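User: Let's play a game. I give you a shape written as tokens, and you guess the letters that built it. Ready? Here's round one.
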């Protein structure tokens, strides 16, 4: 069985076997490459990220220790580095596109009131988001924070497109039902 073979290769890797790690790389790299390419659509970037990931796994293999589901662990890690890369790129782009504009002058009192109000809203939002089921929270973050489309989320999570839409709809309904934020933000 493939799972047993991968576990044996990882256990050999833990013992320092470069040969087992090379075999593990040969087994998993092509699948991970296709998976990450669907997310990032840039083969050279995917190749670089996966090489870095495999190097990191080799260097930290003792810390990682035994893995029960080797293939799933590698897929999850690949997904994580791809999403982290998307976040990093978006963050950099946002910084570059900020255009300084003259802002209206507010009194110190206005600024303090605004900050307190923003802080309270942020606290409420975080509390409400944390009350959502894990899957709904993850999908909301991918949709609105990472700005991924519904089809991209469906591919990443390997669920149906309609399931993604249902999760988002239910999460937003829950957010509206339990929050006073709907008075601030109407969608």
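Assistant: Ready! My guess for every position:
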């Amino acid at each position: 069985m493939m799972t047993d073979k991968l576990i044996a290769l990882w256990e050999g890797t833990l013992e320092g076997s470069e040969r087992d790690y090379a075999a593990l790389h040969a087994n998993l790299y092509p699948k991970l490459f296709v998976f990450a390419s669907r997310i990032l659509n840039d083969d050279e970037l995917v190749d670089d990220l996966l090489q870095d990931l495999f190097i990191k796994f080799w260097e930290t293999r003792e810390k990682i220790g035994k893995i029960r589901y080797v293939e799933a662990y590698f897929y999850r890690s690949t997904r994580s580095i791809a999403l982290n890369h998307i976040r990093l790129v978006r963050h950099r782009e946002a910084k570059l596109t900020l255009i300084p504009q003259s802002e209206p002058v507010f009194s110190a009192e206005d600024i303090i009131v605004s900050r307190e109000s923003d802080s309270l809203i942020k606290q409420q939002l975080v509390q409400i988001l944390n009350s959502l089921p894990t899957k709904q929270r993850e999908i909301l973050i991918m949709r609105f924070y990472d700005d991924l489309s519904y089809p991209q989320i469906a591919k990443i999570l390997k669920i149906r497109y309609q399931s993604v839409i249902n999760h988002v709809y239910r999460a937003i309904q829950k957010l509206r039902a339990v929050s006073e934020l709907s008075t601030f933000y109407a969608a």
